[in-house]
Design brief:
- By secondary structure, this protein is of the alpha/beta class.
- The chain has a single domain, classed as Glutaredoxin, CATH 3.40.30.10.
- It has four helices and five strands; from the N terminus they run βαβαβαββα.
- The chain has a five-stranded mixed β-sheet, sandwiched between helices.
- The chain starts with a strand and ends in a 5-residue tail after the last helix.
- The relative contact order is 0.23.
Length: 112
């Protein structure tokens, strides 16, 4: 399994907004049961799509500024950023196929 990069408020601009690849950010906390439920899915997605997607985790307790900016009111929340913009948001525990259904359209070229 791929190890996910844990990012901080200070690193968010460089690691996410300035990334040349789309970035999936997993907003989570240690005490959050549903966060631990989706963690294996997030790790699998990171490993399977590493050529086209960067996957990171952000602990909302240790890094409150960024979740505040993006109005993260419930966790787990997954947000997909592409070219510095948030293009998808998934809140709550979801099966892997539902997560992929939300993010894959942003990774693949759409037909003209």
């Amino acid at each position: 399994m791929a190890e996910l990069k844990h990012i901080t408020d200070d690193a968010f601009q460089k690691e996410v907004l300035e990334s040349d690849k789309p970035v999936l950010v997993d907003f989570w906390a240690e005490w959050c049961g549903p966060c631990h439920m989706i963690a294996p899915h997030v790790k699998q997605i990171a490993a399977e799509y590493s050529n086209v997607l960067k996957v990171t985790k952000m602990d909302i307790d240790e890094n409150p500024a960024t979740p505040g900016i993006y109005r993260i009111m419930s966790i787990p929340t997954l947000m997909l950023f592409k070219n510095g913009e948030a293009v998808a948001r998934i809140t709550g525990a979801r099966p892997k196929d539902r997560i992929l259904a939300e993010i894959l359209p942003h990774l693949e070229k759409q037909p003209a």
